[in-house]
Write a structure and sequence with these properties.
Length: 281
């Protein structure tokens, strides 16, 4: 797969960051993703119009969109939130579909939602998996998106368990799965793990988030570990025929949460951004 990535042509971090943390601007010389949740403080069509503007601006290249709004998102941790009900979530998915329209784009579907389901009781787990299946069917029926269902990182679940979970939510139009979104596992480790999953899923392809894995993990710490670096730059030149791309799913420099001195989850953190650039693989 040879994706024509789009590198955004506008300032994503603001003048105060550019002047105070000049190294951070190096990050945005490479393609990175755009995350979409649901903001109840804004009009319902805000997200729909935002996606339309982005796709129009990126054309004919492909933007990378991340859907992140599953109910009980992050199971109450630093990125807690998400839709308040099944109805609200399906409405969010419908508006996402309208925003994309007939255009092609890359979609990373709900980081960590699938592996986090194993932390729920049986009733809540089956409810979440059913909601994911329904929404993924909507996406494949109504859009031309290239969809990768996020499956967490390589040190979380066994490939056999992930395969069973994917069987409950996926359909034949799904391109495959994404590995390591927002985490720090090395590309080599993620590749070996994903290849094992591919042996169970012969039709699936995958992408690896290399945004912050240049120095690998720091023990098992996942929230703003110190001393990390940028990984491989986004590319379709990978070492495995089923690995479609290395992507920057997590935007380098955005905090994982209020830990290790970081601001709240999703906020840009200039000190960390410059550290990532200095420690690039």
């Amino acid at each position: 797969m040879d994706y024509p990535f789009w590198i955004n042509d506008f300032d994503r971090i603001g003048k105060k960051y550019n002047s105070k943390y000049p190294l951070a601007s190096e990050i945005f010389k490479h393609p990175s993703s755009f995350w979409y949740g649901d903001n109840p403080k804004k009009p319902k069509k805000h997200m729909e119009k935002s996606i339309q503007r982005l796709i129009k601006r990126a054309s004919p290249q492909l933007p990378i969109l991340v859907m992140y709004n599953i109910p009980n998102r992050d199971v109450g941790q630093y990125s807690k939130g998400g839709a308040k009900s099944e109805e609200r979530y399906l409405d969010y998915v419908e508006r996402f579909c309208k925003g994309v329209g007939d255009n092609e784009c890359i979609v990373i579907y709900e980081p960590d939602a699938l592996p986090h389901s194993t932390l729920l009781d049986e009733e809540d787990r089956e409810w979440r998996l059913g909601l994911m299946k329904q929404s993924l069917q909507m996406l494949t029926d109504r859009t031309n998106c290239i969809i990768y269902v996020d499956v967490g990182h390589s040190a979380w679940l066994h490939p056999k368990d992930v395969n069973e979970l994917l069987n409950k939510v996926s359909n034949k139009k799904i391109r495959g799965f994404s590995v390591n979104s927002c985490n720090y596992r090395s590309t080599e480790e993620c590749m070996a793990w994903a290849k094992k999953l591919c042996r169970l899923r012969r039709n699936d392809h995958f992408v690896i988030d290399t945004s912050r894995n240049g120095q690998g993990p720091k023990d098992e710490e996942w929230c703003n570990p110190q001393g990390r670096g940028l990984g491989e730059y986004p590319s379709t030149d990978t070492t495995h025929r089923f690995c479609d791309a290395y992507l920057w799913v997590k935007i380098p420099g955005e905090s994982d949460g209020k830990c290790n001195g970081g601001p709240k989850a999703g906020m840009f953190w200039g000190e960390q951004a410059e550290e990532l650039v200095r420690n690039v693989k």
